[in-house]
Amino acid sequence: MSVEPAKQATLVDVATRAGVSYQTVSRVINDHPNVAPSTRARILRAIEELHYLPNVAARNLVTRRSQTVGIISYGTSFFGPGQMVTHIEASFRERGYGLTLSTLAELTLDGLQTAIQELRGRAVDGIVMITPMAGIDPQAVRTMCRNVPFVMIDIALGASSPSVVIDQRLGGMLAARHLLALGHRRIAELRGPHDWTGAVLRHDGLLAVLREAGLAPVATEEGDWTAASGYTATTRLLERALPFTALVAANDQMALGAMRALRDRGLEVPRDVSLVGFDDLPESAYFEPPLTTIHQDFRSLGRAAAACLVEVIDGRRTPSEQRVLVPQLVVRASTSAPR
User: What does the pLDDT read at residue 2?
Assistant: First the structure.
């Protein structure tokens, strides 16, 4: 005796169960905003009760959307860009989007254009670009994308482009204000690479606060975001024999290298030198001593990027709007008043 397979619920079945038209059900499935909350809740309940599965292919034909977005990324071997990709991807998947990832070995306009063309060929609904290098012109990107919605991440503050950024300049200011409040006046700096937007803004924020106090960094050395470069740059600072009581590192990895260099010279943190990092790595609370740092909320960045791009796709956000998120100072045991 054969058993007939259970009949799959249809759009009309859902409409009948919810007591609405099938057009209203379609609007809910396609996330149309003009549906009353109570009606939307009733339809979603009917969808769950009937185990209704939307026909994605048919829906895409109607909406002319692929329900897929592209992510172009650079520098994902570093903590910040890597976290951006992770949380941006998770936020889009929560919204039911598929992802196509394009990772660039070098961030140039030519490389960016090639990646954009490839994603356009895959008919993505929109593109998120993590472009942390200085010199990437948003207007050039707009021309490359033409009619494909896009959002840029980690670009300059005030750029006239759909973008989401964390205020890196404010982060540098928070680090400097914290050290000044503790009484430090001889502050040195390990800045990040000069061609990264975030490094430039953190450096500018630090300088701005010190200038307001009538000060300047005792000395500045540049690193490449790695712990090894933090060790080498701090060693150079110490070899210059310029006395400083506090050190600001452009990220937590460089701060880790700085801790080792100071320790190798017989100096203790924070007894001899207070130390501030940037990023708030999960491990930073377990450094010895635990690291005072600037926290960046990459989860919120991912959610904001996804929301921003969907709004651009739906025509609900102006194409030149920038959303700015605020970093936070996390005080731990690596900073104290100077002796």
Answer: 43
